[in-house]
Amino acid sequence: MNEILKDVLDAMTSLAIIFGVLFSYLQIKKISKTIDINKKSNFIKVLGRFTKEYDSLMIEIGDCNSQKKVDVWYFRLWNLYTNEFVFFYQGILDPLIFEFWAFRLCLFYNEKPSDACLKRTPCYKKSHLKYMKNREKSYPRTDAFYHELIKIADEEKNEENIENRVHKLVQKYRKSK
Description:
mainly alpha; 6 helices; elongated
């Protein structure tokens, strides 16, 4: 009789362990799904925030009627790009979106601003270099990325080559998952 009772207790213990493992597995799947939903939600919020800030800057160009306002406008623009890199590097901003933004920036670095109030700036690149210099290397990784992007803008004229090099640059700075 003791032998049968021992076998029953062993079977019940095994079942309890199996149910415990199964319950833990289901809880982990549920938590993982919640994390994925939160991560996607954060991507959307970050994208919305950056897009809204960029749109505001484009609207405010017309209000830059003094050199001080122009300087503040450029500071905000380059600060936005700095924040975008930081969020990308931390894995909060989608790498494909960041790559597209970096590619577009690379294309217009050497252009002279067409807006009347910004025309005193010889090109966007000069303004960005001034911004990075004034921050006294507060963000060395970010500065290194944008210096490499400027180098691509200076060396390449073919859009396909620019796109390929920007892709490689973004991959170089992308954190491993």
